[in-house]
Amino acid sequence: MADIFEVAAPRLYRPEKPVLDVKYRSYIRSLKCCVPNCRRGYIEAAHTGPHGIGQKSSDRSCIPLCAWHHRTGPNSLHQLGPVKFQEHHKVSISVQVEALNIFYRENLEGK
């Protein structure tokens, strides 16, 4: 039993570092806002993944959102939180993240 605690304990106190990828964030900012029918400019790479106090989520969890839908509008991701944001805008964050990662990996990564 002691062996289990010795192996498990370090994982509890050393969370994995998030992926930081400047090129991926640049790719995300080159897209249009993922909210349907949004035509606003100034796209931001909105982090959507899990994060803790003082820890940013992985860049690979970003979705493209205009500033209004990301942080400043009354129905923004920051105002509503991810669950209500998805319901209100009819957007699936996990589907967006997966599709963006697949496209990037297959077409742009390493170029």
Report on the structure:
The chain has one domain. It contains 5 helices and 2 strands, in the order ααββααα. The N and C termini lie far apart (48 Å). The model has no long low-confidence stretch (mean pLDDT 83). With 111 residues, the protein is mainly α.
Strand order of the largest sheet: 1-2
Helix share, percent: 40-55%
Q: How many β-strand runs?
A: 2
| Gap from first CA to last CA | 48 Å
**Main β-sheet, in a few words?**
2 strands, antiparallel
Which spans of ≥5 residues are poorly predicted at pLDDT below 50? Answer: none
Order of helices and strands: HHEEHHH
Query: Would you tell me the structural class of the helices and strands?
Result: mainly alpha
**Average pLDDT rating:** 83
The total of helices stands at 5
Beta fraction of the residues?
A: 5-15%
Estimated radius of gyration: 17 Å
Number of domains: 1
Shape: globular
Features:
111 residues, mainly alpha, 9% strand
What's the layout of helices and strands?
Elements: H1 2-13, H2 22-29, E1 43-47, E2 62-66, H3 67-72, H4 77-89, H5 93-107
Q: How would you sum up this structure in a few lines?
A:
The chain has 111 residues and is mainly alpha-helical.
